[in-house]
Amino acid sequence: MSTDPFSRLYCLRHFHAARPLPGQRDFDRPLDARGQAQAQEIASKIISGAIRFSTVFVSPSVRTMETAARIGIAADDPRIVISPNLYEAPAEAYFDLLRGGVPDGSLIVGHNPGMEEFIFALCPNAGRHAELQARGLATGGFAGIDVPEGQDTFAAGSGQLTSLFMPPRP
Question: Which Gene3D superfamilies does the record cross-reference, listed alphabetically (predicted)?
Fold first, then answer.
C-alpha cells in the first residue's frame, strides 16, 4: 500500500477462461489451463511485491471468482465484496463502484472491455504504455493505479498508472 497522499487501486482482469461448452452461459466459464498458468505467474508477482489487498471487489462470474481464489482470496474471505454490476459492465460501472472512495490497497477483479476502458479513462498516462496500447488489457493483466486522496478521488483523468504486468502471449 502507498504511503503518499494517494490511494492505491489494483485492477486484475480475470485469467484466461475456457471456451463455452454447448449450452453453457458465458457467466459460467471456468479458467482453462492457460488461465491456471497465468494465475501462478501473477500470484508470484503479488507475493514477491508484498502486495496486500484491503478490499477485493469481484464480479460474480465463475472465472473472476476462480481468479480471486487463485491469488489467495477465497469467496468467504472477509475482504471480498461480490459486485454483480461488474459483469459485462461498461467503464462507468467501475467508476460507480468507487464513488465515495475505497480503502487504499483495494483490488477489482473484472472483465474487458469495461476494465480496460476504466483504466484508460481514469489514467491519462495509460495511452503511453506501448504494451497496453498494442494488446489492450490482456487476460491476467494486473495494473497498479495511484489516485490522489480527496474529493475527486476516482474521477476520470485523476489517476496515474504506476505499474502494469501482463502475462506473455501464448
Answer: Phosphoglycerate mutase-like
CA nearest 58: which of 34, 32, 76?
76
Residue 54: all three cell numbers together: 484491503
Name every residue whose Cβ is closer than 8 Å to that of residue 52 and which is 6 or more positions away in sequence: 1, 105
> Please, which residues have CB within 8 angstroms of residue 82's CB and are 6 or more apart in sequence?
58, 59, 60, 65, 75
- Which residues sit opposite 58 in a β-bridge? 82, 109
Higher pLDDT, 58 or 1: 58
pLDDT at 5: 79
Rg for the chain, CA atoms, rounded: 15
Chain mean pLDDT for the chain: 92
